[in-house]
């Protein structure tokens, strides 16, 4: 069955990989972007680029972009070099807005790309911006857990740009800290879009020895 998937943060490094995977297999993909200069990169993956700034849009505007979608993926982030304030407006605020819009548009499936350590208390001496980032991710997770959506939260470990291995460790928290390639994160998201086994689950993801298909297949029924 062909899916229609909307990805927030459509120009992000994981999003671009996921867009290409979805488009290659024939799904309809829309990438939400705030910078029109990024449209060409999104369209090169086979996705449609939609200009929508999640720091400025309202629920009705975002819901209109989600109309008819089978799933949404929150892969947005304030990114390197941003301060603590934008960690809140993007990593938390934009996630809440997208979830509001998904509920209004009647989109059943919601995948959230979070981070290992999300919501955990910061250690003394932790960098202020990093502390704001994990706090915002944790608050976005908490908001999502209270909603009537078929949500799944994925917390990748340290992200790398090495070629994907197709092998991961995917399990409920908490896994030991580790790294995972962006290629493999995108491939896991693709597999999770195709299953209901991960409904209402928070999953941590690092590199490992298990094939992605087997790792997803092994998830306990929710």
Task: Outline the structure in words.
The chain is of the alpha/beta class. Helix content is 38%, strand content 23%. It is built from 7 helices and 11 strands. The strands form 2 sheets. A 9-stranded mixed β-sheet has the order 3-2-1-4-5-6-10-8-11, sandwiched between helices. The two termini are 23 Å apart.
Write the layout of secondary structure elements.
Elements: E1 4-8, H1 13-24, E2 28-33, H2 39-44, E3 48-51, H3 59-66, E4 71-74, H4 84-105, E5 109-113, H5 128-145, E6 150-156, E7 158-160, E8 167-171, E9 179-181, H6 182-193, E10 201-207, E11 210-211, H7 212-217
Parallel strand pairs: 1-2, 1-4, 2-3, 4-5, 5-6, 6-10, 7-9
Antiparallel strand pairs: 8-10, 8-11
Q: Are there runs of 5+ residues with pLDDT below 50, and where?
A: none
Number of helices in the DSSP assignment: 7
Roughly what fraction of the amino acids lie in strands?
Answer: 15-25%
User: Termini distance?
Assistant: 23 Å
Q: What is the succession of H and E elements?
A: EHEHEHEHEHEEEEHEEH
Summary?
This protein is of the alpha/beta class and 222 residues long. It is 38% helix and 23% strand. The chain has helices at residues 13-24, 39-44, 59-66, 84-105, 128-145, 182-193, 212-217, and strands spanning 4-8, 28-33, 48-51, 71-74, 109-113, 150-156, 158-160, 167-171, 179-181, 201-207, 210-211.
Which short descriptors sum up this protein?
23% strand, 38% helix, single chain, 222 residues, 9-stranded mixed beta sheet, globular, 11 strands, alpha/beta, two-stranded parallel sheet, 7 helices
């Amino acid at each position: 069955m062909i899916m229609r998937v909307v990805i927030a943060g459509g120009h992000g490094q994981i999003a671009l990989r996921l867009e290409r995977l979805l488009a290659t297999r024939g799904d309809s993909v829309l990438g939400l972007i705030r910078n029109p200069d990024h449209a060409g990169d999104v369209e090169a993956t086979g996705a449609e680029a939609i200009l929508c700034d999640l720091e400025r849009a309202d629920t009705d505007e975002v819901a209109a972009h989600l109309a008819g979608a089978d799933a949404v993926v929150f892969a947005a982030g304030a990114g390197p070099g941003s301060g603590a304030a934008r960690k809140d407006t993007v990593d938390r605020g934009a996630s809440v807005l997208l979830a509001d819009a998904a509920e209004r548009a009647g989109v059943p499936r919601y995948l959230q790309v979070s981070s290992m350590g999300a919501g955990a208390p910061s250690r003394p001496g932790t960098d202020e911006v990093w502390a704001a980032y994990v706090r915002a991710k944790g608050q976005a997770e908490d908001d999502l857990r209270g909603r009537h959506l078929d949500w799944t939260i994925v917390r990748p470990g340290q992200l790398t740009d090495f070629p994907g291995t197709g092998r991961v460790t995917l399990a409920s928290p908490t896994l030991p800290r580790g790294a995972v390639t962006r290629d493999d994160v995108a491939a896991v998201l693709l597999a999770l879009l195709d299953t209901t086994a991960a409904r209402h689950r928070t999953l941590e993801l690092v590199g490992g020895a298990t094939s992605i298909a087997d790792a997803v297949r092994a998830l306990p029924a929710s």
